[in-house]
Design brief:
By secondary structure, the protein is of the alpha+beta class. The protein contains 16 helices and 16 strands. α3 packs antiparallel against α4 and α10 runs antiparallel to α11.
């Protein structure tokens, strides 16, 4: 599809389901481990069998409050759970325990930075606790559907944004920032492939200048940043095309097909009254005291923006380097451990982590947690650059050997005889040999061809097998190459 979008504006709000990283479910003691055999982790409470009563998981509450504090939201001093009624094969009770009128978190915000460097604030309407449903499996059942209730009762927070987003790119920036935050907090593993972090995108369009919102559609359960961007872009184009052709948008729930890059209608969109919400009679109201909230606030980890600012101030890093290094909490921890272990300048450490380490991990298809070179080992290598045992060029060779599992830096340097030559008389002897072997270049340099200096540096480094100290080579060469007299 291709339509003129210049006259139109998209209005987008996102609902993100964030699976909380508890060991047991939100209202039962059943485990939440991913990948178990179907229907082996659903107990009587999850199934809503007669005679059972739900009991709130206190750790799930703590995680929800942590999120609210991290986005500057209001934490409800008193909130309640409600029953949300709908009838799906994978919803065993016939209702979902959620929150409606009194959510635990309300009126937060998330600041995002767009590709052009501009900043924007996206409001967070609410984040409420709820239980997940089970999962319908349509594969390998010869035209039938199987039901796996392992996920039923898994704790979630549903994070609902204000309709402040105006493009697919803004939506992705918001999602990435939100994903980073919940992983930093340790409340979600962020695994989108496993459904731990998934998004429903509400999209409508209106002509620019109009204040009234258009009719929205909801595209359900999109589980990758790339798919969210494609689904929203498609839906914006589709809605504009429908309206310009004289049609009207129907409020409905849609699904995104990653193979075609298109959305398709799934069902008409329910309103709140369709769910027949009412307070759950089996669960008491939750009361969060000021002391409880303050205790959680004090236990919050250093958050991404604060860590980035500290890296810039304490280590003298650029905003770009600090942003890369604090993109993931394990990477930030790794970098700080390298700085501590090496005793080298932070900028040197940052360059090696960002360029050499991440480059090697990318080739290996591993993340920082699977690095074959520990922070202490990389720190040991950079310490040898700092104390001039080896040059930066030799360090590259040593690092490759470390990645290949040949040992730590000191062992490799010793085994390969890579210790840097810092003895100045030995370097002068090499320089003399190079000068004698290249009389024409020497004559040219001394007659004013300054660019030949690089030639002599290269020849000396080649003759010393890269072991000569580069600073000493440059200084001594300038002295020796100067015209006599």
């Amino acid at each position: 599809m291709s339509v003129n979008t210049m006259e139109w504006e998209a209005v987008i709000g996102l609902e993100v389901h964030c699976q909380l990283l508890t060991r047991s479910k939100i209202f039962s003691g059943a485990p939440t481990a991913y990948g178990a055999a179907p229907n082996t982790q659903a107990c009587a409470v999850d199934l809503g069998l007669p005679g059972v009563l739900p009991v709130l998981n206190g750790e799930a509450l703590r995680m929800a409050v942590s999120f609210g504090l991290a986005v500057g939201a209001q934490i409800a001093p008193r909130c309640v759970f409600a029953r949300k009624h709908y009838f799906y094969p994978d919803l065993p009770k016939g209702y979902q325990i959620s929150q409606y009128e009194l959510p635990i978190v309300a009126k937060g915000r998330l600041d995002i930075v767009l590709d052009d460097g501009s900043a924007k604030t996206v409001g967070i309407t609410r984040a409420h606790m709820e239980e997940d449903a089970g999962k319908s499996l349509h594969e390998s059942f010869h035209g039938q559907t199987g039901i796996d209730l392992n996920r039923a009762g898994t704790p979630l927070i549903e994070i609902v944004s204000e309709p402040d987003i105006r493009s697919a790119a803004e939506a992705v920036a918001y999602l990435k920032k939100l994903h980073q935050l919940v992983v930093y907090l340790g409340i979600c593993d962020g695994n989108m492939q496993e459904g731990s972090f998934r998004c429903d995108a509400n999209v409508s369009v209106r002509r620019k200048g109009e204040a009234r919102f258009g009719t929205r559609t909801e595209t359900k359960n999109v589980n990758s940043f790339r798919y969210v961007e494609k689904a929203i872009d498609y839906e914006i184009q589709r809605q504009i095309e429908v309206i310009e052709a004289g049609g009207r948008i129907v409020q409905e729930t849609r699904l995104f097909n990653p193979d075609t890059g298109q959305t398709r209608a799934m069902r008409s969109k329910e309103d709140a009254n369709d769910y027949r919400y009412f307070p759950d009679p089996d669960l008491l109201p939750i009361v969060c005291s000021a002391e409880y909230i303050e205790e959680i606030r004090k236990a919050l980890p250093e958050l991404p923006e604060a860590k980035k600012a500290r890296f810039e101030a304490a280590f003298g890093l650029s905003a770009y380097d600090a942003g890369v290094l604090t993109g993931e909490r394990p990477l930030a921890d790794y970098f700080e451990a390298v700085v501590k272990a090496s005793g080298a300048e932070a900028k040197l450490c940052a360059n090696w982590v960002i360029t050499d380490l991440l480059g090697a991990l990318n080739k290996l298809g591993k993340d920082i947690g699977g690095s074959p070179v520990s922070a202490q080992a990389l720190g040991g290598l950079l310490g040898r650059i700092a104390d001039k045992t080896i040059s930066g060029k030799i360090a590259k060779e040593v690092f490759e050997a470390m990645v290949a599992g040949e040992g730590d830096a000191d062992a490799i340097i010793k085994a390969k005889g890579l210790v840097q030559i810092t003895d100045e008389p030995a370097i002068v002897a090499v320089i003399d040999q190079v000068m004698q072997a290249n009389p024409e270049q020497l004559k040219g340099y001394r007659s004013g061809k300054d660019k030949l200096f690089g030639f002599f540096v290269g020849q000396v480094m080649k003759a010393s097998q890269g072991k000569a100290n580069p600073d000493a080579v440059n200084r001594l060469l300038k002295e020796k190459l100067a015209p006599p007299g």
